[in-house]
Amino acid sequence: MKDVCAREITCLRLSVTDRCNLRCRYCMPPEGVCGRLHDEICPAEELAEITRQAVSLGVRKVRLTGGEPLVRRDILEICRDVAALEGVEELCLTTNGTALSRLAAPLREAGVNRLNVSLDTLRPDRFAGMTRGGRLEDVLRGLEAARKAGFSGIKLNVVLMDGFNRDEIPDFVDLTRRYPLEVRFIELMPIGQGAAERFLPASAVLEACPELEGVDVSGVARRYRTPGGRGLVGLIEPMSHRFCARCDRIRVTADGKLKPCLHSEQEIPLRGLRGEALRRAIREGIESKPPRHYMAETGRSGAARNMNQIGG
Ligand code: SAM
Ligand code: SF4
């Protein structure tokens, strides 16, 4: 289905939890956030029903996110239910990767087609500092388990931060020379704990690695490759090159609120709705999707929640 700006909405991002085992400094406060109570969170069957109705309106791709989706105990059941729905062509999952060594193979069996793994640094001490206690080695073991489980085209999400990982840009680009990975450099957004003074434009990647050659524009990413490289480098620039005109997604928060735009405070409650009533609510959300975000003007996301609560 198209929204009022003629954007075809084909992607649904489902946040399955607002909880997380890490505390990334730009995403969560040190004490974490007060997680929604168990009965406020959509159970597996409601997530499947929301997906079914969204598919009937043209959604083809579903991404499970959070919080950290792999901390949810019934994550495999959710994956199986969503993957089994007719019309779901692709089921993706965004994760911090720390539980992948245990879960990569079961996720694959449960029908997950693609993984995005968030990894902002390749240095153990920096990783522990940025995530407030996480272990880089868990993510690296998780990536290896994902490869062995048969996941291909894994995307690494790297949030660019001045004074933190600018000097690691060439190391991440080098990974794409050696492995068939897509490293996606993402501009830090002023949402949650994202602090403006850390902002680094994605153009810093092209300055650091002038050998990168343009390949294409894929969804919200401009993509590049190194000469002869096996993988790709993607730039995601919500701040310096607003891509709202190409936005094809809607989101549902872990407590069942439809968010037509990540950066708008507009939320449509879906809990308790089924069948035609649910379909109508989702249609209404798509129809009222804002044309763009206003972070450049206001300096802040209009969303009244942190990223872990909405799903990145
Ligand atoms: N826990 C999972 C993970 O880290 O991949 C999924 C949820 S996380 C909120 C999804 C993505 O949002 C991650 O890649 C994270 O780096 C990104 N993110 C969180 N806060 C952000 C911010 N202020 N600006 C840009 N990206 C952000
Ligand atoms: Fe957790 Fe992901 Fe937020 Fe980091 S970015 S605190 S891993 S939800």
The value of Rg in angstroms is 18 Å
Number of strands: 12
Question: Which stretches of 5+ consecutive residues score pLDDT under 50?
Answer: none
Mean pLDDT: 91
Task: Write up what this structure looks like.
- The chain has about 300 residues and is of the alpha/beta class.
- Helices cover about 30% and strands about 20% of the residues.
- The protein contains 10 helices and 12 strands.
- The chain has helices spanning about 45-55, 75-85, 100-110, 125-130, 135-150, 170-180, 205-210, 275-285, 295-300, 305-310, and strands at about 10-15, 60-65, 90-95, 115-120, 155-160, 180-185, 215-220, 220-225, 230-235, 250, 255-260, 270.
- The protein has a 12-stranded mixed sheet.
- Helix 2 (about 75-85) links the parallel strand 2 (about 60-65) and strand 3.
- Helix 3 packs parallel to helix 5 (about 135-150).
- The model has no long low-confidence stretch (mean pLDDT about 90).
- The site of iron/sulfur cluster has 13 residues, from helix 10.
- S-adenosylmethionine (SAM) binds next to strand 3, strand 5 and helix 10.
Descriptive keywords:
single chain, 312 residues, alpha/beta, twelve-stranded mixed beta sheet, 10 helices, globular, binds S-adenosylmethionine, binds iron/sulfur cluster
